[in-house]
Amino acid sequence: MKSRVDTTTKGDRLLASLSALANPHRMRVVAALAGGGRNYVSQLARDIGMSRPLLHLHLKKLEDAGLVTSKLELSEEGKALNYFEVAEFAIQLTPAVIAAAAKTLTARSET
After folding, report:
1. CA-to-CA distance for 40 and 81, rounded, in angstroms?
2. DSSP assignment letter at 22
3. Are residues 67 and 30 in contact, defined by beta-carbon separation less than 8 angstroms?
4. How crowded is the C-beta side of 73, counted as CA atoms within 13 Å?
5. Can you tell me the distance from the alpha carbon of 5 to that of 53, in angstroms, rounded to the nearest whole number?
6. What is the pTM of this model?
7. Contacts of 51 (CB under 8 A, 6+ apart)
8. How many CA atoms lie within 13 A of 24 on its CB side?
9. What is the per-residue pLDDT across 1-27, written as a single tens digit (0 to 9) for each?
10. Around Cβ 14, how many Cβ atoms within 10 Å?
11. Tens of pLDDT along 63-74?
12. Which residue ranges form the domains of the chain, and what is each CATH number?
């Protein structure tokens, strides 16, 4: 397995997490996985009433932010199932945390 060095700054990680969670659909995905445990895409889509393509988009955003993880597994029938689960995370958001994180941002603001 390849080791990946995380070069993302503290500010960039905080921004990615907040951006990922700033969507009601993604919040519902995290809630479903937190409450029901790991699940594969098709079942998760049925559980939360979302199309699989839309769910994939939201899961990608959450995974890129480090809030969920995925693992491809084979079922007993030989079908590939992509399982997702919530990663352990805690976001402390105070003015001091924001100020410290802002000093480390590398992302450019979009104007």
Report:
1. 6
2. S
3. yes
4. 10
5. 29
6. 0.82
7. 45
8. 1
9. 344 445 557 899 999 999 999 999 999
10. 22
11. 999 999 999 998
12. 10-102 (1.10.10.10)
